Amino acid sequence: MSAEDTPTGVLAPCSTCGELPAPGARFCENCGSDVGPATVAAGGPPVLARPPVPALPEPPADLKPTDPPGDPAADPVPPPPVATHRPCTSCGGTVADDGYCEQCGEKAQVERDHWAERPAPWVAGVCDRGIRHARNEDAMALAASGDPATAGRFAALVVCDGVSAAPDSDVASLAAARAARDVLASGGPDGATPVTGDVTERIRAWQALMVAASTTANDAVLVAVGDKAERAEPPSCTFVAAVVDGPLIVAGWVGDSRAYWIPDAGTARQLSVDDSWAHELMAMGTPRHVAENSPQAHAITRWLGPDSTDPAARCAPTVPDSSGWLLVCSDGLWNYCSAADDLADLVRSTEATTGREPRALATELVRWANAQGGRDNITATLARFEALPASATSDNLHTDAVTGDEPATRAL
């Protein structure tokens, strides 16, 4: 959106559900009602406009848009799943079949709207619907064992973000996340085929398992969506995962969900490389703030789903030499804080308030993203990584090598 397209006041809420529509929207993203041509409430503070952006190359035709099409009448927003016969979180009353509390009348929260996982005291994640979307199409699945300060520690963090433009992508993302988690857990110390050897051998083994995890996740999507695979826009999702194995971290991805290494001090790094149109613009020299705010910025070049042509994860291993956080998240978080050092500042300042309990920290990161507008589903998963003694990392290499093809630069 250019500065000229931005209204000069505050958008009026939807008269049907009360949600605030997106700037310039004619239909409510939450309920699909007609909100008219960018009506604004009088007397409100100005809406900040994005800086004008230069002309950019046209994106290629084979991108997958991650936002829904602009005609809700042709593709209405599906209602959230109905939660029945559960206690109301507001008053403790009974939730009726229509999803509302029989006692206080409040709409019940669907379990998929917000949930947390904490497989070990040092690993946790929070997945949230956000504010704008009618349902949560993000998913996560975690596994962990061992003590965070020992060489026997293990964690697997998986996040999948359903493609909003393809209905039922919440089914795809959950199936993918759980299938990938199970494959990665098989290589942990309690798994069926534990990864062993020195750091170099473990890197090779985990890269192979990461590729197996993403392709197995793709197979799980095909099974989960059934005949929906025949749609013109079949259910699809992104994939990002990271494994902690003693001194080692291995990240893998398909799409634009991300893994970050955030040390307690020093320079943070994005471990993954987005498979997106925005990244390809940056590879051609476009500044980050321009690329990430351009049209089709979130169109992805790789994904999981029936129409995926390349579900094999690309991987990046690293052996951190300090303590810090492994963060695996969806774009509902990083949209508001994309650069690694900016996200590190957010994590560190939040940790100063919450302490080093990963579930509390993930909860506050999600809350912060909602406070910025919550325009997408939000998932934040964290593993606390403590630096190990040098004796535990005798093969102490430090690498950011990426397996598979390097990000393609299209001839446009």
**What is the CATH superfamily of one domain?**
PPM-type phosphatase domain
| Rg value | 21 Å
Backbone shape? globular
According to CATH, what is the class of one domain? Alpha Beta
CATH topology of one domain, which one? Phosphatase 2c, domain 1
Quick structural summary:
This protein has 412 residues and is an alpha+beta fold. The protein is built from 7 helices and 13 strands. Helix 6 (340-354) crosses helix 7 (358-371).
Task: Provide tags for this entry.
single chain; 412 residues; alpha+beta; Phosphatase 2c, domain 1; six-stranded antiparallel sheet; five-stranded antiparallel sheet; 7 helices; 13 strands; 21% helix; 18% strand; disordered N terminus; disordered C terminus
How would you explain this protein's 3D organization?
This protein has helices at 169-185, 199-225, 277-283, 288-291, 331-334, 340-354, 358-371; strands spanning 10-11, 40-41, 114-120, 123-128, 138-145, 154-161, 239-245, 248-254, 258-263, 269-270, 314-318, 324-329, 378-385. With 412 residues, the chain is of the alpha+beta class. The chain has a domain at 111-393: Phosphatase 2c, domain 1, CATH 3.60.40. It has a six-stranded antiparallel β-sheet with strand order 3-4-13-12-9-10. α1 (169-185) packs antiparallel against α2 and α6 (340-354) packs across α7. The radius of gyration is 21 Å and the shape is globular.
